[in-house]
Design goal:
Length: 78
């Protein structure tokens, strides 16, 4: 693997205009209202704004809330 010396990694996203996977340029990390992180940038080919959600945990918001509620009970039991 070669390092290209870029200070920021190039995330990949799907460009709806090119209908292909593209590297996201001008990528900036953003935190959404629900606390999830996302990458916002542009397609290097057509410049269309691309948005990639970095769902670190593949759990829907509802499931996460449920887990959070269930956790205290479990912790007390332990
Ligand atoms: Zn594109």
């Amino acid at each position: 693997m070669k390092r290209r010396g870029s200070k920021f990694f190039m995330p990949e996203g799907y460009c709806v205009k090119c209908k292909a996977k593209k590297e996201i340029i001008d990528a900036a990390e953003e935190t959404m209202k629900n606390g999830r992180k996302a990458i916002k940038g542009k397609c290097p080919t057509c410049g269309t704004v691309m948005f990639k959600i970095l769902g670190g945990k593949a759990t829907p918001a509802a499931a996460t809330a449920e887990t959070t509620k269930a956790q205290p009970a479990k912790t007390t039991a332990t």
